[in-house]
Specification:
Number of domains: 3
CATH class of the largest domain: Alpha Beta
Radius of gyration: 21 Å
Bound molecules: flavin-adenine dinucleotide
Strand order of the largest sheet: 6-5-8-3-4-7
Shape: globular
CATH topology of the largest domain: Rossmann fold
Distance between the termini: 38 Å
Structural class: alpha/beta
Largest sheet: 6 strands, antiparallel
CATH architecture of the largest domain: 3-Layer(aba) Sandwich
Number of helices: 10
Amino acid sequence: MNSVERMFAPEQQTKDRLSNASTWESGTKVWASGEEQILTCARVVDETHDVKSFEFRVGDGTPVRFEPGQFMTVSANVQGQTVQRCYTISSPPTRPYLLSITVKRVPGGTMSNWLHENMKPGSQLRAYGPSGSFTPTAAPGAVKALYLSAGSGVTPLMSMTRASIDLGLDRDIVFVHSARTPADIVFRKELERLVALSPRLRTFFLCEGIGSESDWQGPIGRLSLQQLSEWVPDYAEREVFTCGPAGYMKAAQTLLHEGGHDPAHYHQESFDFSAGAAAAEPAESVAPKNQAASLETFTVKLSRSSKTFTMSATETVLAAAKKAGVAIPSSCSQGICGTCKTKVLEGEVEMKHNGGIRDREIQKGFRLLCCSRPTSDLVLEL
Ligand SMILES: Cc1cc2nc3c(=O)[nH]c(=O)nc-3n(C[C@H](O)[C@H](O)[C@H](O)COP(=O)(O)OP(=O)(O)OC[C@H]3O[C@@H](n4cnc5c(N)ncnc54)[C@H](O)[C@@H]3O)c2cc1C
C-alpha cells in the first residue's frame, strides 16, 4: 500500500487520527490543523465569470496532509482590518504540494472580492492548517456515494471526487450539481472529462435557467425527488454528502427523507455560519450554568507570550481576548470551523461547540475559544 492509499484506508485513518499525525511518511514535516503558514500563489484559474481557483504552495514547499472535504482558514489585512474566512481545499490530498481553493465572489463580500482582486502568481497569503470533518472518512466503509451540491458548495465534493479518481478507488460516485445557469457550473469541463475517464463516476447538472447557453440540453429547475429517482434509482442505498446554500441543503434533506433515505447515511456542510448555527445550537447563545457565575471574573494567562487578562464568566474566551487586544486566529465564532482551537494547559472551561472539534482533541485538552466560557482561572498554550 503506498502512502496515499494508506491515507484513505479506514484502519490507517483511525490509527492516524489517534496518533499525532505530524509527519508525512519518512519524517517530512506537514501542515498541522490550525498551524499558521504563508501560502504563495502559483496560479489563478478563472472557473466561471464569478469564481476563481487559487493554487498555492505552502511555506517552503511542504507537502500538506488533509482529508478531502476539509477547509483551511485564510487571513488577510483588508482596509486595515484582519479578516479571516474558511475555504475548502478544492484540490485533492493526492496532490499535496499545490493546494487550491475555489472562491465565488460574494456581492459586497470582504474576503472573496479581496482574493479575486489581489491574488496573483507570487502573491502571499497567511493561512491556518486544514480542519473539518465533512470528509468521506466519516463513512469509511461506504462504496456507493451520492454527492449533492449547489453553487460554490461543489468544492468539497470536487476534492473528494478528484481524490477518489486519482487513487482509482472502487467507490461508485454519482455527483448531482445544481447551478443558476450552465455558465455557472463550476468544474463542468473537468467533471465531464473525469466521467469519460472513470466508469465509477456519473455526473448530472441541473440549472435554474439557461442564461446565455441557448443550446443547453440538460434539465431546468430545482432538484426534486422525481428527478433524483430517475438519475439515481438506488439513492436510498448511498452515503449522501451535501453542500450548498442553506435553503438547498434543507430541500435536499427533506426530499431524501421523503424518499426513505436513512439520515444516518447523510452528511452535510454549510458555508453559511448562520445556517450552521440554526441547524445546531449557536455557540454564542451558550450561557453560563447559573446567574451567580455572571458576577465572577477569571484570569487568563498565555503561556508563550506571558500576556495576562481578566474576563467575566459570561464572555467567551475569544471575545475577551479580542477585547484585551490579544489576536487569536478565529473565523466563524460558532464552534464550527475550529480555527480558534487552543490547548487549555490549566483550568476549566464550559464549551458548547457545533462540530468544530473532535473528541480526541478534547481529550488532549484542546478547546474552541469562541464557544468556551471559563469556570476557573486559565492558562492557555498561546
Ligand atoms: C467550512 C467552510 C468552507 C467554505 N468554503 C468555501 C469555498 O470553497 N468557496 C467559497 O467561495 N466560499 C466558501 N466558504 C464561504 C467563505 O468562508 C466566505 O463566507 C465567503 O467567501 C464570503 O466571505 P466574504 O468575506 O467575501 O463576505 P462577507 O464580508 O463575510 O460578507 C458576506 C455577506 O454579508 C454581507 N455583509 C458583509 N458585511 C455586512 C454588514 N456590515 N452589514 C450587512 N451585510 C453585510 C455582504 O454583502 C455579503 O453579502 C466556506 C465557508 C465555510 C464555513
